[in-house]
């Protein structure tokens, strides 16, 4: 076999041929739709490289991508026990019929997954029959199994609705005309519990049950919800001041002043004043937060942090009752929807963004990804989280620093698009207002030209310190009164004449 082939053996190649043949049956099959689009996708390596555990289930594998993983197969006994208990003796007898029907649906099964499934059809049918029925019972008994919700909502773990409906139909668990309603009601219970953003509750939206799987349903209800290196520069400056030892300089100047060194008294007063300046707070204005230091490899969109916008630009964050399509910036008000943050939020957001990227056509706006980029861009520290929490925009029982860590760990995933969304327009308006502030312009000038000046200033101060310390040593040995007494008197008369 070629190293670039999808086949691992001759048997694998034969399975592929048989699968292709069933896409072109000799007799027309009425109940099989051969034009089923893929809906369960492998997450791209670009996303998984950053945090693979956010996309690969940690406890429960559903479907052909993860069912046979050795580290997850320990759940197989629990799956089978749960399925048998759920079906009872009467329905259990029909389970084999589910498998047989899924075997007949081979083209549909394979079409639902974007990756070639190198599995015998019997194996594939059994996997989907077991996992599909396990998911059905999970949804009906959700509160008892909440700890598995993160895995259930991963993109690669989705079971297509079309297969779930087939299982329900064969087992006669619900009447055929109620399959969609019953299934999607159970979807919404789980979505309500774990969606980071509010879901649309309008009948016209909820009534649309054309979504392909559980994660697709959550995404649909979220996006359609409408309401009626500057850090490095600062660190270098701080380190330079520390190395100089300002306290030592002040003491040296005071020593010279006591011995009449011309100008030392005035210099001492200046240095004492400089010593009392709260440099940490001033330098804090030049920070965007601790994100770059903690996550140097995480790229974010260009936008000020919540703290910067609030304290420097006077921008107020206001809760909008709608969703991400209602994000807006007007005057000094930044309108954002509420987001609930819990233990599964990062996993859910990442997988929603992965689903959006896999299904959105080229040129379209990636609305949810833009929202996640925005939140990651404006949240850099626990103080940013505190401000948004106080405004009702963030709801969570997690501590502020943990929430900040979640958003600091998600990198930028979208690029500029010709068709600007409301989120891109809001970001542009914020940057325009913030960038036109005088204090920000000064900061950017310092960032652009300050480094060279800082090095020169550091050298100058170091030389001055050496000179003063040398004079201190000289005066302590030879005395300075007879050398500087007359000059000191003249300089004092000159100062007082002013």
Write the layout of secondary structure elements.
Layout: H1 10-21, H2 45-48, H3 76-92, H4 95-104, H5 106-111, H6 121-140, H7 149-152, H8 161-171, H9 179-194, H10 203-206, H11 214-223, H12 230-244, H13 246-258, H14 264-276, H15 279-284, H16 291-294, H17 306-311, E1 316-319, E2 328-330, E3 333-336, E4 339-341, H18 345-359, H19 367-378, H20 382-390, E5 394-396, H21 400-408, H22 422-435, H23 438-478, H24 481-497
Parallel strand pairs: 1-3, 4-5
Antiparallel strand pairs: 2-3
For this entry, give a set of tags.
498 residues, mainly alpha, three-stranded mixed sheet, transmembrane, 24 helices, DUF247_pln, single chain, 5 strands, disordered C terminus, two-stranded parallel ribbon, UPF0481 protein At3g02645, 3 domains
Describe this protein's structure.
This is UPF0481 protein At3g02645. Keywords: Membrane, Transmembrane, Transmembrane helix. It comes from Sesamum indicum (Oriental sesame). With 498 residues, the chain is mainly alpha-helical. The protein folds into 3 domains: 14-223, no CATH class; 230-278 and 439-497, no CATH class; 291-431, no CATH class. It contains 24 helices and 5 strands. It has helices at residues 10-21, 45-48, 76-92, 95-104, 106-111, 121-140, 149-152, 161-171, 179-194, 203-206, 214-223, 230-244, 246-258, 264-276, 279-284, 291-294, 306-311, 345-359, 367-378, 382-390, 400-408, 422-435, 438-478, 481-497; strands at 316-319, 328-330, 333-336, 339-341, 394-396. The chain has a 3-stranded mixed β-sheet with strand order 1-3-2. A two-stranded parallel sheet has the order 4-5. A hairpin with a 2-residue loop joins strand 2 and strand 3 (333-336). Helix 4 (95-104) packs across helix 8 (161-171) and helix 11 crosses helix 18. The longest helix is centred in the C-terminal third of the chain and has 41 residues, at 438-478. The chain starts with 9 loop residues before the first helix and ends with a helix. Mean pLDDT is 79; it is low at 229-244, 279-297 and 494-498.
């Amino acid at each position: 076999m070629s190293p670039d082939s999808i086949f691992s053996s001759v048997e694998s190649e034969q399975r592929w041929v048989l699968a292709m043949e069933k896409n072109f049956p000799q007799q027309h099959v009425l109940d099989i739709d051969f034009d089923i689009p893929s809906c369960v996708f492998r997450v791209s390596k670009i996303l998984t490289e950053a945090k693979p555990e956010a996309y690969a289930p940690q406890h429960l594998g559903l479907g052909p991508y993860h069912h046979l993983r050795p580290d997850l197969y320990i759940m197989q006994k629990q799956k089978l026990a749960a399925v048998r208990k759920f079906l009872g003796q009467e329905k259990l007898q029909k389970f084999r019929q589910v498998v047989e029907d899924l075997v007949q649906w081979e083209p549909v099964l394979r079409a639902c997954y974007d990756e070639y499934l190198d599995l015998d059809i019997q194996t594939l049918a059994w996997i989907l029959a077991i996992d599909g029925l396990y998911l059905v019972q999970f949804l009906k008994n959700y509160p008892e199994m909440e700890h598995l919700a993160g895995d259930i909502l991963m993109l690669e773990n989705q079971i297509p609705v079309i297969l779930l409906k087939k299982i329900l139909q064969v087992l006669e668990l619900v009447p055929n005309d109620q399959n969609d309603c019953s299934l999607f009601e159970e979807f919404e219970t789980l979505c309500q519990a774990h969606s980071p953003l509010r879901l649309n509750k309008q009948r016209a939206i909820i009534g649309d049950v054309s979504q392909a799987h559980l994660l697709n349903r959550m995404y649909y209800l979220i996006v359609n919800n409408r309401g009626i290196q500057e850090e490095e520069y600062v660190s270098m400056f701080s380190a330079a001041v520390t190395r100089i030892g300002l306290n030592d300089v002040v003491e040296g100047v005071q020593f010279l002043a006591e011995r009449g060194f011309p100008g030392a008294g005035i210099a001492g007063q200046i240095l004492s004043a400089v010593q009392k300046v709260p440099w940490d707070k001033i330098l804090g204005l030049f920070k965007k937060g601790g994100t770059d230091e903690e996550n140097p490899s995480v790229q974010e969109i260009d936008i000020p942090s919540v703290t910067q916008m609030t304290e420097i630009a006077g921008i107020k964050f206001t809760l909008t009752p709608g969703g991400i399509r209602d994000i807006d910036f007007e005057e000094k008000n930044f309108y954002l929807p509420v987001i609930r943050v819990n233990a599964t939020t990062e996993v859910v957001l990442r997988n929603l963004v992965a689903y959006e990227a896999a299904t959105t056509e080229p040129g379209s706006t990636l609305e949810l990804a833009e929202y996640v980029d925005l939140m990651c861009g404006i949240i850099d520290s626990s103080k940013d989280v505190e401000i948004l929490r106080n405004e009702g925009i963030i709801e969570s029982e997690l501590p502020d620093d943990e929430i900040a860590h979640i958003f600091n760990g998600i990198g930028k995933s979208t690029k500029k698009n010709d068709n600007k969304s409301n989120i891109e327009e809001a970001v542009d308006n914020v940057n325009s207002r913030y960038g036109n502030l005088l204090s920000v312009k000064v900061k950017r000038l310092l960032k652009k030209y300050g480094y060279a000046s800082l090095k020169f200033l550091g050298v100058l101060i170091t030389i001055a310190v050496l000179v003063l310390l040398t004079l201190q040593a000289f005066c302590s040995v030879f005395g300075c009164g007879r050398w500087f007494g007359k000059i000191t008197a003249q300089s004092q008369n000159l100062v007082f004449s002013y």
